[in-house]
Design a protein that fits this description.
Number of helices: 1
Shape: globular
Helix content: under 10%
Distance between the termini: 13 Å
Strand content: over 45%
Number of strands: 13
Number of domains: 1
Length: 144
């Protein structure tokens, strides 16, 4: 699998890259290429985006979010007592927003590090990991 920022810059694990509103992430899987705009709702129907927070606007169930979060051991559950919101967060990156992208059997975890203003200068993206699974409910990890 190949992951490129704006179809030019290869993304490597645990290395931050500048990220701006309108930047696209390209995924190359075998002979197919997919593009994703993290801030847009108009993406390829083969791409599923999970923001790892429940309740959410996407209608993802807490069970689905928990199953995805278990693929990435660095994601820790945090339940906010005042609101009842359940979120999966990264302890080491307190100012980040983790996002999981599912394409076919691949689950790709990114962290968005906020800049001075949301989605503006200083914002960075980090590829945290890729897990290849079989099926949606089976979550059998093929390789790590």
């Amino acid at each position: 699998m190949e992951i490129l920022l704006n179809n030019e810059i290869p993304l490597f694990e645990n290395k931050p890259y500048p990220f701006y509103k309108g930047d696209l992430i390209f995924f190359g899987i075998k002979n197919e290429k997919f593009s994703l705009d993290l801030f847009s709702k108009n993406n390829n129907s083969q791409i599923k985006l999970f923001n790892l927070m429940y309740p959410n606007k996407n209608g993802d169930s807490l069970e689905d979010i928990k199953e995805i979060a278990t693929l990435f051991p660095f994601l820790k559950e945090n339940i906010y007592k005042k609101t009842g919101i359940t979120a999966y967060e990264i302890e080491e990156l307190t100012d980040s927003t983790p996002v999981v992208v599912k394409i076919n059997e691949y689950n790709i975890c990114f962290a968005i590090l906020g800049g001075e203003y949301s989605r503006n200068p200083g914002t960075k993206i980090i590829l945290l990991g890729i897990r290849r699974t079989k099926g949606f409910r089976q979550w059998k990890i093929i390789n790590q």
